[in-house]
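Reading a protein record of the kind used here takes only a little practice. The integers have meaning only within a learned vocabulary of local backbone shapes. With that in mind, consider the following protein and its fold in token form:
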Amino acid sequence: MESGNNSFKNLYSSTNEVQIIVAPSTSNTEEVASTSPSSTTPRTARDKFFKDVQYDKEKKRWSAECLLCETPKRVFDALGVTSNFNRHARDYHTQAFKLWLQELNEVKAMSSTNQKNKISQHFRKRNQASQHSAYHTTHPRQTELSTAIVNDLIIKLGLPLSIVERSAFINFMKTVDPKFSMTSRRTLNRTTIPSLYEKMHDRLKVFCSSATFLSLALDIWSDRRARHC
């Protein structure tokens, strides 16, 4: 409790008994913040060029003494506002103010670069993790893409089974989904296509057995020797 009283002293003016709270000097604040590299450069002109910050609760304002003025100069501003502190430093200590702005911009640029690097590193790690992991053979996405290759490309477009061995097509599918594992030509030829044939054959049997009437269309033609086929 005593340490708290030592940090903030209560002063009273002799005229109107207005309560003023004296905050710790900016030098002490900067000493505490100096342990963090990102906090070595003060972010406001008040913290950079002023000390002895005082708060006037009744008038809702604060004030601080300029560190650079030869004659002690106290600047006042509304609570939470630093425009008067900025204006004083810019107008009366232009060179120091410009140097501080340059340092502040460099810190912001470094912070922005570090943030971009973190984001890039995050996505790089995410992509690397995706490349090293693959869908299980029963994964819905693996099944969806494998079925689409057979139904849309091989059956409907009439592309050869060897398309799954083409490096260009393999690279294309890696772009579509890095986790997809390409189905081998052997699997298509011995398992996938025969399985689809059996399913269609069974469906056709069921359809024909349930039909009341069955119509057949024949395409008969003859060659030059008038032989019918």
